[in-house]
Amino acid sequence: MASPLNVGLVGFGNIGTGVVRALDANREVINGRVPHPVEVVRIVDVDTSPRPDTAYDPAILSSDTDGLLADPDVHVVLELTGTIDFAYELIERALTGGKHVVTANKALMATRGAGLIRIAVDNDRCLLFEAAVGGGIPLIRTLHQGVAANDISAVCGIINGTANYVLTSMSDEGLGLEAALRRAGELGYAEPDPSADVEGIDTAHKLAILATLCFGQDIRLDDVWVEGITRVSALDIEYARQDGYAIKLLGMARRFDDGSVEARVHPTLVPECQSLASVGGVLNAVRIDGNLTGPVVLIGRGAGPEPTASAILSDLMALASGRAEGGLRREMRLCVPRAPKRIRPMAELRTRYYVRFGLSDVPGALGQVLTILGRRGVSVASVEQPAEHGGEYAHVVITTREAREADVQSALDEVGALPISRTEPLILRIEEMD
Amino acid sequence: MASPLNVGLVGFGNIGTGVVRALDANREVINGRVPHPVEVVRIVDVDTSPRPDTAYDPAILSSDTDGLLADPDVHVVLELTGTIDFAYELIERALTGGKHVVTANKALMATRGAGLIRIAVDNDRCLLFEAAVGGGIPLIRTLHQGVAANDISAVCGIINGTANYVLTSMSDEGLGLEAALRRAGELGYAEPDPSADVEGIDTAHKLAILATLCFGQDIRLDDVWVEGITRVSALDIEYARQDGYAIKLLGMARRFDDGSVEARVHPTLVPECQSLASVGGVLNAVRIDGNLTGPVVLIGRGAGPEPTASAILSDLMALASGRAEGGLRREMRLCVPRAPKRIRPMAELRTRYYVRFGLSDVPGALGQVLTILGRRGVSVASVEQPAEHGGEYAHVVITTREAREADVQSALDEVGALPISRTEPLILRIEEMD
């Protein structure tokens, strides 16, 4: 029997216990595929009370982080603390102390990942983070190996299960946002405070990680334009459906020929014939556009202990396969940003738009709006004004031909300032995704 | 500059020239990601005439296979001949001669792959075949690495672009099979002789390869139950749609708890809400069911020179990354069937069925059919008999609850022998794919 790969696990919560349970359940499969068996030899958490339904030796659970880091028999630190500053310091100490690190920490990787990757490379160690994006969908390995021969021009996807569940419930059952979110909470699909999910922050974290890997620039959360789904209504979903679109919270990044990168998160109208449109519930999906493969779409469970454990264990197996001696450390170097960062301002975006206004129901109101759009060079593709509407103002929904974000924004600022304007205009973007 | 990985390419047709062009176009991307640059140093084909629009040194193109195999400077043989016996011998000679092999030859791998893999392992060489299944979709690497921690219970998918294009055209435009196939030929999506595609043989080849990798049994073409799409009519597609299903040619394999494996290819009714149902045109899609990840679906272009080149180049890059020194050769051993083959007879299948009969339009005809089904223990879920039908007989469409294949087959044999029977009954299977 070959010597084991010894793992020191820090953070023994939902995901940490999930990894221990998955390793226990699949031990035969895993150790049949790698030369060094994967063993968890130390577990650290502030809470050292016994965990039910999880097979581990209670003697290895302590709150002694220093002891774990100082233990020469720990080869890999598995960081599952869900913190930022503590996790950064832990990972830095592990890497400089000669240990490999596996983490599922998307917030950390999206904000300070490039620095940690440099520390890993400088210390000739591996820092693996497959579980930080897309849960059980093997995205990072696909980028580094499966489509490695391709020049990647774009990456986009549905990478927050909570927001997708909410939008799917609104679409399938006509629920409002609040009701859909309440249901998601009841089913365990939403955190008690779901704001990072519905406001797009979590999606932006993951997009920053993906865009950095795809384009080799150090793209961080701050570089991503973020709009959440909180203003999307059942009415918008119904209008979109009539035109053959689903509304999805997408993270999208693409690189232009001049090397500049556009990275944005917002609710998006996606044609129903596209694969992403039919990805419902808590599923995640990511599309990678390679110049040889064309679009490749990967769909799967983006969260939860078992899918996350699948990703974490695949990282541990990569280390246990002996690949850390060569290929894997070289792959680490590919994660180091190698090009200067050039973020394209959102104002320069060109796409099609869906805009909803609330206007006083007076003759000529629509004419004033269309005149303003025309003056800003925004061409209208369709106008809809429901025949029936209760209350004191009318909803107007306009879709545009391709237009420039800056022009649309200025036009809507102007519309919003009109005396006939009754609600802040809602802007959604339409992506045909050919 | 590190020493190059020298490739000897055998078979300089559509795919071979595609690889050379892709390597030329993406040289910077590829060589930026691997320590050893990938170089094509010899090309062999019976046709040595110049190839247009392809950058290669004419001096390296010859018909000298022996010379290529004898050249110690050729590290990898890239087999793209599309033959069986010639390719087998070529690959065997290359492996025993100390060279690695990359191939896109699905027919060869589905019929004699296990033997070649053993030769590779015995000679401590790699035989890589990512391009043999799913074109530009990185399936084999996903199985070996991305979902490596999972016990795989099932794999299924749309893995023939021609058949999928035909079914999509029939569905979207109401074309008949002949017309759809003619269109596919005109667009270059079907071979002059499309029988292997529409009769399911090509799908079965790829399924055999996938099932062998997923379940570790030596599953060959002969072990797969194969039905093609030639008897599916626009009427069936319309009926299925009314019930919320799309008809897709699926390859499906799953392993039961007793270790037996079921492998089948046939047109299948798939719920429209499932990802596979919306995969249209020439796209391929594969779903892998892992016990941790749950279902993971990969969608992309399954054929064509560029996607195929993407897969071939990813194999060459795996070799050029130095992984052949360790991890990759260990992965080869994972390809060797390790469990005795136990194929579950098709008669034992339990699923739901869609059956179409042509019956004489006489009173009591339907009653006779339902009586026979009932006697065989086949419960009916729905019966439809179009109100309008020209001609001398009536179409009757029956869907069943879950039933046993043997019972359904016996019942239909009995129905087919009735004097009122006017057409051979058509059987399609319904898979809910939860």
Total strands of chain A: 17
> So how many helices of chain A?
15
What's the mean pLDDT score of chain A?
Answer: 94
Low-confidence stretches of chain A: none
Q: Can you describe what's shown?
A:
The structure is a homodimer of 434-residue chains. The first copy, chain A, is of the alpha/beta class. Chain A folds into three domains: 161 residues, 3-Layer(aba) Sandwich (Rossmann fold), CATH 3.40.50; 162 residues, Dihydrodipicolinate Reductase, domain 2 (2-Layer Sandwich); 85 residues, Alpha-Beta Plaits (2-Layer Sandwich), CATH 3.30.70. Helices cover 37% and strands 25% of the residues of chain A. The first copy, chain A, is built from 15 helices and 17 strands. In chain A, the strands form two sheets. In chain A, strands 7, 8, 9, 10, 11, 12, 13, 14, 15, 16 and 17 form an eleven-stranded mixed beta sheet that branches. A six-stranded parallel beta sheet of chain A has the order 3-2-1-4-5-6, sandwiched between helices. In chain A, α5 links the parallel β5 and β6. In chain A, α4 runs parallel beside α5. The longest helix of chain A is centred in the N-terminal third of the chain and has 17 residues. Chain A is elongated. Chains A and B meet through α2, α6, β12, α12 and α13 of A and α2, α6, β12, α12 and α13 of B. β12 of chain A pairs antiparallel with β12 of chain B.
Task: Based on the model shown, name its key terms.
six-stranded parallel beta sheet, 3 domains, alpha/beta, Alpha-Beta Plaits, 17 strands, Rossmann fold, 434 residues, homodimer, 25% strand, Dihydrodipicolinate Reductase, domain 2
